[in-house]
Amino acid sequence: MPSKKPAKKAQAKRSAPEKRVGMARPGGGRTRGDDGEYGARADKATGELAVVEKIASLKGAVRDVAAKLHDVVMEAAPDLEPAVKWGMPVYSRKGPVCYAAPYDAYVRFGFYDRTGLDGLDAGDGKGGSIKLASVEDLDEARVAKWVRTAAKR
């Protein structure tokens, strides 16, 4: 009786890494536009209009807080470039400076580098950011000072 050899597993052919770059991935990554070409990620849009549209899509007090934060940031540092990245407003100048992350009941406003930003501590283990549930929680002068300091870097 001939001896049986174990069957070889069929190996899936993989494309070279350079061919995989830019391929559409389910649930994220780059997507195809109407023209069939790969374009920007759906959760990333640049410009003030994109940020204003994102803020307008929010509900209730979160929308009011995000809108007020946007006004304060743009007034304090008009040279920052607003964009929607990672599903939230992000303000950049030679790299990301600050963000306004909307949640159901509050907005977390924070900085990517909190060096030199005195008094910035949420008190809930999220150093470098503050939690704002209403417009009344927003100290405009203090936030404007932080934004000006961070934007100089």
How do the strands line up in the largest sheet?
Answer: 1-2-3-4-5-6
CATH topology heading of the domain at 45-151: Aspartate Aminotransferase, domain 1
Helix content: 25-40%
Mean pLDDT score:
80
Please work out how many helical segments DSSP would assign: 4
Class of the domain at 45-151 in CATH? Alpha Beta
Instruction: Compute the number of strand runs.
Output: 6
CATH architecture of the domain at 45-151: Alpha-Beta Complex
Shape: elongated
Radius of gyration, whole Å: 22 Å
Structure overview:
With 153 residues, this protein is an alpha+beta fold. The protein has a domain at 45-151: Aspartate Aminotransferase, domain 1 (Alpha-Beta Complex), CATH 3.90.1150. Helix content is 27%, strand content 18%. The chain has helices spanning 17-20, 48-56, 60-76, 140-151; strands spanning 45-46, 81-85, 88-92, 96-102, 107-111, 129-132. Strands 1-2-3-4-5-6 form a six-stranded antiparallel β-sheet, with helices on one face. A hairpin with a 3-residue loop joins β3 (88-92) and β4 (96-102). α2 (48-56) runs antiparallel to α3 and α3 (60-76) packs across α4 (140-151). It starts with 16 loop residues before the first helix and ends with a helix. The model is unreliable at 15-40 (pLDDT under 50).
Keywords:
153 residues, single chain, 4 helices, elongated, 6-stranded antiparallel sheet, Aspartate Aminotransferase, domain 1, alpha+beta
Short description, anyone?
The chain has 153 residues and is of the alpha+beta class.
SSE topology:
Blueprint (H helix, E strand, L loop, with lengths): L16 H4 L24 E2 L1 H9 L3 H17 L4 E5 L2 E5 L3 E7 L4 E5 L17 E4 L7 H12 L2
Antiparallel strand pairs: 1-2, 2-3, 3-4, 4-5, 5-6
